[in-house]
């Protein structure tokens, strides 16, 4: 996830893994627009995006050296890495490394899926929020 700076407060970006019609997975980057709003009065205005559906959450914790062999996502879900270092690989051969604070939307619920690896020396923990298609 792009860390906000004074020059990009009006948007947030995150990574996305999706499946093409042939069942292969790929990475994409998504930008969500934000605007300055009084979203929690009397607190001062802050930047807010539009609402998206979500109703529950869970945590995934991967031990050191864990490898999730090629698999589709069990559901459309956001993964926010809280600790550790993770690498994900799509079937087109693209590999991306993620650090705490990075956000990934998994949409490859069909097809061949992706590979996930804990590449850090310790445990890697994700906050996972299922995100049904709107």
Task: Tell me what you see in this structure.
The radius of gyration is 16 Å and the shape is globular. β8 and β9 form a beta hairpin. The protein has a six-stranded mixed β-sheet, with no helix packed on it. The chain has a four-stranded antiparallel β-sheet with strand order 6-11-8-9, with no helix packed on it. The mean pLDDT is 92. It has one domain: Jelly Rolls (Sandwich), CATH 2.60.120. It has no helices and twelve strands. 0% of the residues lie in helices and 49% in strands. With 134 residues, it is an all-beta fold.
What key attributes describe this structure?
134 residues; mainly beta; Jelly Rolls; six-stranded mixed sheet; four-stranded antiparallel sheet; globular
SSE blueprint and pairings:
Layout: E1 11-19, E2 25-33, E3 35-37, E4 46-48, E5 58-62, E6 67-71, E7 77-83, E8 86-90, E9 95-98, E10 103-106, E11 114-118, E12 124-130
Parallel strand pairs: 1-10
Antiparallel strand pairs: 1-2, 3-4, 5-12, 6-11, 7-10, 7-12, 8-9, 8-11
